[in-house]
Amino acid sequence: MQSASDRHEYPAHWEADVVLRDGGTARIRPITIDDAERLVSFYEQVSDESKYYRFFAPYPRLSDKDVHRFTHHDFVDRVGLAATVGGEFIATVRYDRIGADGMAASAPADEAEVAFLVQDAHQGRGVASTLLEHIAAVARERGIRRFAAEVLPANTKMIKVFTDAGYTQKRSFEDGVVHLEFGLEPTERSVAVQRAREQRAEAHSVGRLLAPGSVAVVGAGRTPGGVGRSVLGNLREAGFTGRLYAVNKAFPEDLKELDGVPAHRSVRDIAAPVDLAVVAVPAEQVPEAVAECGEHGVQGLVVLSAGYAESGPEGRERQRQLVRHARAYGMRIIGPNAFGVINTSSEVRLNASLAPEMPRPGRIGLFAQSGAIGIALLSRLHRRGGGVTGVTGVSTFISSGNRADVSGNDVLQYWYDDPDTDVALMYLESIGNPRKFTRLARRTAAAKPLVVVQGAGSAPQGHAVRATRLPHATVSALLRQAGVIRVDTITELVDAGLLLARQPLPTGPRVAILGNSESLGLLTYDACLSEGLRPLPPLDLTTEASAQDFHAALARALADETCDAVVVTAIPAIGERSPGDAELAEALRSAAAAAPAKPVLVVHVELGGLATALSAATSTAPRAEAAPRARTDMPDGAQPVPAAVEAPEGTHLIPAYPAAERAVRALAEAVKYAQWRREAADAGKVPEYEDVDEKGAAELIGGLLSRGQGLTLDADDTCELLGRYGIRTRRAIPAPTPDEAARAADALGYPVALKATAPHLRHRADLGGVRLDLADEEQLRRSYAELTELFGKPEEIRPVVQAMAPRGVDTVVRAVIDPAAGAVLSFGLAGAASQLLGDMAHRLVPVTDREATSLIRSIRTAPLLFGWRGSTPVDTAALEDLLLRVSRLVDDHPEVVAVTLEPVVVAPHGLSVLGASVRLAPPPARDDLGPRTLPTY
User: Fold this and answer.
1) Which of 517, 524, 634, 646 gives 571 a disulfide partner, CB atoms 3.0 to 4.6 angstroms apart?
2) Does the pTM exceed 0.90?
3) Using an 8 Å Cβ cutoff, are 841 and 477 in contact?
4) Which segments within 157-235 are labelled E, that is strand?
5) 265-285 tens-digit pLDDT
């Protein structure tokens, strides 16, 4: 299909896999001369009405001339795209470049006429909307700025496709035809529409995998113990509410059932529809299984089979083919090498995984790329509190294995508006698209907590991820900026998740501590200080405290307006008044219920029954009905385990921790997250500047890039470009000789600074390569001689003379375009100490005014800017303004791939940029602004 065109080679980069509105997938690609038969077959399946809407007249069949015209494109002035499923066309779109007279034209004409045709069976799936995004991107690439379309008034579906797209448009009615004209530059509304459609489509695609009406286990063996047979048993034991099928080509022809489940030799033999197939056959047999599933209309696959990218280059190619094969049939994949998926909803009760027990239902969503970590997470959640009962169980669980298709981004799209999930916990070994993940995480975190453990090493061998130049710590900082609760271990993941699922968010950092152990209270107090909380003095109830004493003390603490959260510490006590576990749990629960707006945590030592009692529902809670068994059309279907006891509606269950440090760390994360939620409600704005010359900067950048593909600007060009954005730099004059240094100082005016700018000496005042406050020529010449004596000849140390700046705090401002994360703005103090500690803060571009304010306060050395130890506070308002201007520069001009301002001396009034460098390069692709696509593998 990649035939040569009339004028351009086949544009393979226009090919894309997409998710449609109903969650199915399609492939979009250019139409070529090899597609004549496909086009004719497609057209024959289109209704007469749709043909009439396309050609404005009865048009029963395509002539040979039509077929030639619609399959021969130059990929510049004439372009056609097709959406395909199973290799066959389901929709087409084309544009033809036209001039001002409406006739065919070539560049520089920048308008084109566009037309669609969608097979009736696939209308309503969002195919036309997706094709419009892709044909618009193609047109922009070829220099087309406007589309024109003529539509019959009765063709309301197509009119809606154009009007809902969000582009700026004009609309007129003449001679019985609606004439539409719209620009193709993305607008704020068009991007919002695109992302809303993306969310619905990707969420639906995951929903189809988690809530199937029927499941076939491909590879269910006749003997117990195999992977397929185990999954089949887990589905039955969980009480799956849909239909189950066992599939194995090795079954005898007369075998009709396996463990009461209908048995078939092939998916093709199943008379009813199959929504989900769990594939558990050797890797070499998977392609045949995928083809059978695709031809039968299966909607999605969970591939447990190993032997893919985790096994080396051959396996990686096998994995690539698996994804292409499945997507060609419109199917999405979890895996390969996956552990499986779980949905505890009483309407589904799906355990299509290797987990032998169904987790108790609840409000926590779990995602793990690693099967081993997934097992550990499920196990820990099951153990904590005698099993995480009631509202703190699991809603859904996905272990993605090699994550060849469905990723954490897709699952975030699903959880965002999933009514059954209140807290999302994720273990990520890699982030395939950090820019998109950060965007989705920010939106999700604004609605519900998102807790993430991110692997610190390189991506596992089975994962296909784009390279990033950002350090791990920088990526973590960007995740926190997006509202992600970033923790380091799965223990912390569970600790934070239980608190966030069980308790309200704290309104501040003030913590009351009470309990029957003075020592444990002091440990908790110290832990609060270490985590940046503001603990009140601990209240020691003594070891003689009764349950009533705990109740009264907790009630008083919760009623105290100077307290935002309460940590209760409890140790075993001996005596007549010592409370039992159940009695103490009820006392704490009843006190907390009277003040439900503040979180309560318990630190218990050697009270094995207390954690269970705190998690358990009250004795008056009704027991849920046992879930119905899986429908197997057989009378002896396996009975599922009973559902867990659930707490009454609105009950806040109190989380218990075996160590003060763990409880306080979870509380500290909740405090920071709650503060982020409050600040996210008003994210601020990107300011407009009257003195910014965006057009002049673009012209300058274009002229500079015409010299080469990438270049670091010299001092004059750097000053000119930065000046277009109101960023003034202090001039540094090269001084290759003492005489020229003296002339430079005379031109600048004393006092001056003399600096060595060789790479090994630049920004290293600690090495002695800088001389400041030189008041006259004598001091200047003496310093010049000292530098050359210490460090070498002038051509080696590259001395410069610069006018002295007002005294202040030396800082550094950087911006870099990362190929994976996008544009990142960084700030810190200059100097070896900050470099050694890695004390830099980061924000994604564009930065708002509120983000600039928080950026300079995020570094550990920020007190130096605000009058630490009696020093004069510096002009942080000027610093914020500089950060916003740098952000605007790199956001407006993606060709600016790196900016470094160092040092920036921030004085009590104003600041001085003493050093600057800028690097230009052709702009990297912005996949977040282009049409919706699935990642290529």
Assistant:
1) 517
2) no
3) yes
4) 169-174, 177-183, 214-218
5) 999 999 999 999 999 999 999
